[in-house]
Amino acid sequence: MAAVTASEVVQICNGFLLASPPGELMEVVTDVRGLLQNDAILNDTAPATFREYNTEQMVQVKSPNGAHQVLITKYGEIGTSEYLDPRGGVIVSFDHIRQEATGSRAIGGELDSTVESFRRAVDDSVSAYTAEHYPNGATTVYGSHDSSSHKITICISSSRFNPGNFWNGRWRSAWTATYKPGGNVTFTGTIKNQVHYYEDGNVQLVTSANKTASFSAPNDPKAFAEALTKQLSKIEQDYHSSLETSYTTMGETTFKALRRVLPITRQRMDWDKIKAMKISNEIGRN
Could you count the other beta carbons within 10 Å of the beta carbon of residue 272? Predict the structure, then answer.
C-alpha cells in the first residue's frame, strides 16, 4: 500500500476543516493539529481554507459602521480580506483566522447606483422579515446590473451556538432575483441547514435544497421589495414545514432502517433482565 504524501495529508486535513460544524472550526483545527506529527504543513493552506469556510458559512460580524450585523460572503467579496457592507456604506476588513472585523474603509464605486434604490428597499424589507423569523439572524443584500438585466442578491444567515448543552447549528440561504423593471422576476436560491448534536454521541443534520419561483416585477422599489419578500417567505416557510414532516416520520423510517430488526444473536433483547443486572452491579459497587 502506497504511503500517503504530504500534499494528500493537507488535502484530507483541509477537508476536515471545511466540514467543521457551525461554531466549531477552531475545535476541529485543534483536533486536526493533534493528529499530525508536523502541524506546520497546514500553515501555507490555512488562510485559504479559513477564507473558504467563513464565506461558505456566511459568518456574521458586527458592522464597523452601525449596530447591524453584516455577512461575510462570496457575493460581497472585494478582495481576499475585504467584504462589502452595503447597508453600512463601507468595505469591511475581515481577519479569517480570528473570524472578526479589523477595520473598514468608505465605499468607492462598489455600489451600483442603477439598482441601489431597489437594493435598499429589498434590504429594509428582508431585514424586517429576518428579524421576525430568525432571532439570531442577519441579512446582507447586494445589487448589480448588466446590459440585459438587473440583479438583487439576498443572503440570510442565522446561528445558534450552545456548546454547554452540546449542540450548535446554522441556517443559510442565498437568493438571486434577476429581472427588468416592470417585467418578470426569476427568483432562485439555495437553502442550507446544518445542526450538530454531540452529547453522548455525534450526530449531524445536513440538508440543502434548491428553489425557483417567478413573479411580475413592479416598477416601484418598495412594491418590488414587498413582492420579493412575500416569495421568499413562502418558499422558506414551505421548506420549514417539510423539515417538520421529516422529523415526525424519521423515527419510523430513516432510523428504523438503520437498526437491525433483531440483534446478531437473532434473539430478542430481554431489557428487563439487562436492567436488573445493571441495578445489581450498581448496588455491588456501592
Answer: 8
State the Cα–Cα distance between residues 193 and 169, nearest whole angstrom. 8
Question: Are 88 and 66 spatial neighbours (Cβ–Cβ below 8 Å)?
Answer: yes
The DSSP letter of residue 41 is G
Euclidean distance between CA atoms 194 and 255, whole angstroms: 18
pLDDT tens, residue by residue, 150-165:
999 999 999 999 999 9
- Please compute the mean of the pLDDT values over residues 270-286 and round it to a whole number: 74
- Cβ atoms within 10 Å, residue 151: 18
H helix or E strand, kind and range, residue 53: helix 46-57
Burial grade of 248 (CB within 10 A; 0-12, 13-18, 19 or more): exposed
Supply angle C-alpha 123, 75, 150, rounded to 5.
60
DSSP 91-127: EEEEETTTTEEEEEEE--S-S-TTTHHHHHHHHHHHH
Strands of the chain, DSSP E: 60-62, 69-71, 77-79, 82-85, 90-95, 100-106, 137-145, 150-162, 167-179, 184-197, 203-216
Mean pLDDT along residues 228-253: 86
Q: Which domains, ranges and CATH numbers included, belong to the chain?
A: 6-106 (3.30.1140.60), 128-250 (3.90.1150.210)
Backbone angles phi, psi at 218, to 5 degrees: -60, 150
Say what the pLDDT of residue 62 is. 95
List pLDDT tens digits, range 111-158: 999 999 999 999 999 999 999 999 899 999 999 998 889 999 999 999
Cβ within 8 Å of residue 46, ≥6 positions away: 97
